[in-house]
Amino acid sequence: MKQLLILTILSFVTITNAQEKKTLTLKDAIQYALENKAEAKKAQLKVENSEYQIQEVRSRALPQVSINGNMTYNPILQLNALPGDFFGAPGTTLLAPLGQKWTSTGGVSLTQALFDQSVFTGLKAARTTREFYQINNQLTEEQVIERVANNYYQVYVLRQKLALIESNLKTTSKVRDIVKGQFDNGLAKRIDLDRMTVNLSNINTQKQQIINSVQLQENALKFYIGMPIDTEIDIPQSEFEVTPTAFTDIPNSANRSEFLILKKQEELLVLQKKSILATYYPTLSLSANYNYIGQGPQMPLFAKPADGVYWSDFSSIGLNLRIPVFTGFGTRAKVRQADIELRTIQEDIKDTQLSLDLDYKNAKTQIENSIITIENQKENMRLADEILKNINNNYAQGLASLTDLLDAENASIEAQNNYTAAVLDYKLAEIKLIKSKGELKNLINN
């Protein structure tokens, strides 16, 4: 019963682990990142926040209504000097209190901007800010896609290296067993067996180092896509087929997100300059209020004229005009500062355009060189494998030395690693080329 229970538990753990393992294509990884990674979520929140910024600016063009109220108690009323003529005592001055001990006022006020150039400019700036964040969201998504793709391919290369080292480990173990059998039968020297043992130990060490690197790179990939680190992933082999890319003319850099976001910043700086210039314009607004006031020797609330408390209403309507005349040249200085910022961003736009064209040229060159390297390394790998097989046969028949065998093994391992590295270089260059053409989103649309 105890053994049956252990087997049941082990089976359950195996099934659970199998269920947690997730097959992850590049498209799946990118979509997961766009849905779960913090950078992508924050960029989307900024787009949403821009809508509220527009509403905030728009509110300045709408009526502003408020309800006001206050209650004042005057323990000591101010005495005012009044001519005695009003009280039948010419030539004298009398000190008389004005006002009441209690005063309560309640009312409603309204203010409406009729003309304010800064409000109109602010609305345009708010809409442009929304467009800026939309482009920024697109740029953030492209950056996430690029980073995920690069890490995804690096995981593949390390897994390929691990598969190669395991294959070499099996081959070396077989050769080591052959040498040991020969040594036991007096047909090989002790030094030959020791050399094979050392070689086997070195390969085991390399294997452990690659296992560690695979784990670290997989963890990095999971982090970059926002996936729980404990999730086991499986990357299909088909994701890494090398298919030569069809080159076109230099893409239009004006369609790149990096360029578009700078142009939108330029537009915002133009509006910023206009908003400063708007302070030169006059402003016109309408104001109106209606109030109700109660005054008396006691708290006016709920009191009546019989209690000495009297209520009355009053209102006013006004047209307010403000014309700026002189600001001490402060506005002029702000305009010139805004102009400097505008010219600076224009220089950034020129430099970025050159940089984007350079990215395409470099990616294209790297792709072409990587294809040549892959073909060469593929042939080298085939020849190294063929040489290793021949020397293995010759060594088994006593026609080749152990040194020849070890050299052939090392050459085969090196050729395999060089081919894998060439494939990685190609895939990374392919990502750069796709990015330079502004087509990174095609990785999830295809």
UniProtKB/TrEMBL annotation:
It holds the Pfam family OEP. GO terms for molecular function: efflux transmembrane transporter activity; porin activity. It comes from the Bacteria. One of its GO terms (cellular component) is efflux pump complex. InterPro entries: OMP_efflux (IPR003423), TolC-like (IPR051906). Residues 360-394 form a coiled coil. Belongs to the outer membrane factor (OMF) (TC 1.B.17) family. This is Transporter. The lineage of its organism: Bacteria, Pseudomonadati, Bacteroidota, Flavobacteriia, Flavobacteriales.
